[in-house]
């Protein structure tokens, strides 16, 4: 699709979208007018990213209901606006000249990130999931006058799964995801209310919530990835956590759904501490079980997808140096039999 770049292919898919520079799928790169259009046509790596994005968007909207297609088209228009702002010096679309090398690389990253997000829109175990996204770009006032700055624009991105169905099961899940996402990042509430200027303009932020597992018919587990980078910092900060939605109860997982007994927190803490010694002893920077007590009893740290044992997720810095990443421990389920709740099997296997 060398002549029909994503900007214009999207215009065909979106219909009469007046916010798009060109509304014709027959666009010839010889007719490119803006720096953004020229970059798509002229930068080889961006052209390849563009072709991937065209396929990803077409596939992501395939098989959706009309209402969900409309939502995704609206999000695609919002992303196209964001892409034209996120890689400039002032968070405004470039109207003349051309993108510098760094700007072109930035565009490639944005296009590929959008493709990766769209590729989460798919069928999983008979359920059609699609994505809801939020984007914003705003100038960093602390960097705007620094000609050598690499961080003149703050970017905000959020990607959430939604179920494409009009029933109570889907509505409960979709509401749960939106509510939990809003608790994880201010991006959604700010963008939703049109208060983009109130976002922190000195950092980049992203939130990605992806379906990890459908546990039978009664549990949907989501993996939550966050990233935050303060402009000029030595490195960014990131995290991995989990959301577990119980479809029959129409709520998130509670600790008592998995464990029971007056001392379950102590038993789980001690088991996690022992496993840390076994799996990560030479890297640990914590000194006693009390250092992890509050962490390991939080269901957002639990990955239930391992048949062998409970996987507990730690974040960078919590138990080891940043360079060691975000370690996990896996506690064999049989070591936790003494604190097993009556509902644990139902939650784990989803019946």
From TrEMBL:
The keyword rRNA-binding does not apply. Residues 1-24 form the signal peptide. Residues 257-334 form the DUF3298 domain. Keywords: Signal. Residues 30-117 form the Lysozyme inhibitor LprI-like N-terminal domain. The keyword Signal applies. PANTHER family: LIPOPROTEIN LPRI. This is DUF3298 domain-containing protein. It comes from Devosia oryziradicis.
